[in-house]
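HOLO CASE FILE
Compound: adenosine monophosphate
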Amino acid sequence: MDIFFYNTLHKQKELFKPIKESEATIYSCGPTVYKDATIGNMRTNLLSDTLRRILKYNGYKLKHVMNITDVGHLVSDGDEGEDKMIKSAKEEHKTPLEIAEHYTKLFFIDLERLNIQTPEVVCKATDHIKEMLDMVKKIMDNGYAYETSTAIYFDVSKLDEYGILSGIDLKNQKAGARVDVDPEKRNPYDFALWIKAPENHLMKWDSPWGPSYPGWHIECSAMSTKYLGEEFDIHTGGIDLVPTHHENEIAQNKGACGKIPAHYWIHGEYLLVNGGKMSKSLKNVYLLDDIIKKGYDPLTYRLFNFSCHYRGKLNFTWEGIESTSASLERLREGYQNHLNGTEEVPDEVINDLENRFHKAINDDMNMPLALSVVWEAVRYKNKSKKIAELLKKFDTVLGIDIDKAKKTEELPQDVLDLLEKRNEARKNKNWEESDRLRDEILEKGYIIKDTKNGAELQKKA
Ligand code: AMP
Ligand code: ZN
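Model generated. Tokens follow.
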């Protein structure tokens, strides 16, 4: 079945035609490992994971590369401020290497908890200094870069077109429209490929221009070329990367070999919190850990992401997580009901569900639509193993462990005793005592749900 992706490069949905017939090559901009990854960062990682799973569902072999930025990403996405790794190292009284190792480890723990598959190649910037330097030299030899007293800059005026991803119109940019801190820069949009290290700079390497370190953008051009070649199929990242990082990546590749590296550029929108930006000052920066600490299965957050298309802004609220948690439980229960079912379901019904799910995921990863088909399957009136099998197949894309059976948790004896007393009190219509016992049980961390089968206990979230 045909697959369509919205390609930022051409601002339209396009039929996916990979370079090789049965293999898809992908490069994803990975984390800068200087702090904890937020649930916002994880939204972007869930996008590349969903892409992977959809391509696999369609039978593609994958070569997916993700970088780890452990040098060169300055505090502003332009060329200003301190290196984020060094700033964090100073604040935490550690070395940049210790910072990188610590936050890389935490990052991968989060990926695992979200069932995000590890790309075939994970590569660190600091392991590729030689490749980066070679590329800068090539760009320089081709006449696209120049040296100043502080850095090697890419000269955007040498390109036939700069700004094709974001549609910047260089001719109509007023001088000084962009904050321009380096008077030696020839054009406001020129950016640093390589930066000369001041004395005592923590991370620096020998180069033809003395002790220095890479700019942020060169790592992605150098590593994608090394592992995927000058041209590959898909490049992913967050929407914020379009106007600077990805624009500059394209410029570098064109300067080095004359080609735009990826054929399809896929960008994910931001996660908002309570309708606004996540920020430290608003104290609304959430980590996956915060969700887990409240007692939710981390895959609740994965399912929550499918409530919105990746190109739309997704608004995080705790109410949203609470209702998604109930949905996750219902999907898993629904799966178990089908697994234990013995009723008939016509093949046409299975084929129709499969077909509509497939169409939805292939239509620019329309997960909300795909999820509505999953619910139809779960709710199908006749319970059958055939539907359970279909749901397992869908879960290769969803990754929500739909076959995870509910844990029947051992309830503490003192809570069970209290429940017994409450049942007794209710039988005797002693409502006051019954309410008092309910509150006592609540204090011990359990909620009583009165169901048609009698009172049941549920652990407080
Ligand atoms: P940062 O470490 O904050 O620079 O973020 C790394 C990348 O994660 C960014 O370049 C974005 O692509 C992505 N990202 C950060 N915050 C969010 C968010 N709220 N929603 C979606 N993606 C985000
Ligand atoms: Zn990148």
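CASE NOTES: The pocket of zinc ion (ligand 2) is lined by residues 29, 220, 245 (CB under 6 Å). The radius of gyration is 27 Å.
CLOSED: yes
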